[in-house]
Prior knowledge:
Layout: E1 6-11, H1 22-29, E2 33-36, H2 42-45, E3 53-56, E4 59-60, E5 63-64, H3 68-81, E6 84-89, H4 99-108, E7 113-116, H5 121-129, E8 142-146, H6 160-165, E9 169-173, H7 179-188, E10 196-201, E11 209-214, H8 218-225, E12 231-235, E13 268-271
Parallel strand pairs: 1-6, 1-7, 2-3, 2-6, 8-9, 11-13
Antiparallel strand pairs: 4-5, 9-12, 10-11, 10-12
Amino acid sequence: xxxxxxxxxxxxxxxxxxxxxxxxxxxxxxxxxxxxxxxxxxxxxxxxxxxxxxxxxxxxxxxxxxxxxxxxxxxxxxxxxxxxxxxxxxxxxxxxxxxxxxxxxxxxxxxxxxxxxxxxxxxxxxxxxxxxxxxxxxxxxxxxxxxxxxxxxxxxxxxxxxxxxxxxxxxxxxxxxxxxxxxxxxxxxxxxxxxxxxxxxxxxxxxxxxxxxxxxxxxxxxxxxxxxxxxxxxxxxxxxxxxxxxxxxxxxxxxxxxxxxxxxxxxxxxxxx
Length: 273
């Protein structure tokens, strides 16, 4: 085995290349091999050393570049033969990133590894929308859930009754294809259809857009607006639809410091009346 063998599972953040940690950037710059996901900011790959092998392992709904078993094999093989491997994952690798499967493969092979956390899509989406996921006296709990499984099917194991009753903020990942099911399941089981909700597309990346409305209406609004993955649905009392934080408010331009008057990197805020 190569004496430098190590696999670093690195969170690349949601889309803005500046939302990575210093450690993540350092690991990327010293990598011998980079195996990256589809949603990784393209600009980050430019920080890999000139001689590094860069492998696209990206997955998309209905399309698989590499099977999971192939990715597991690559992690072990390249660490043993080349040395320092960076497994670059969008968001935070430990949040719906298939981290456990890959860690098991590396650990079983006796290859040293580490996990470098990243900014997950839900917290980035809330930040871009100018809202908090928690609020004293209103939301003391945050739930991260995935709306679809690895095959793109609606997750059958979610306790919808529990989610409907939860007095806090709900954040659903990978939810565009199952948006009607998610919202209907929550409202049928008692969650208020008038509760504020936002769907944030392409968080932190080009074409970012916020669709804002009410829980009972957000699915129809998203469909009418042509919403596409990746997107995060956030529902809860801290999402104040129609307030100043939901107005087109010229957020900072991604990757370029403070915003200039009259310019915005946010594609738009779509409101449901």
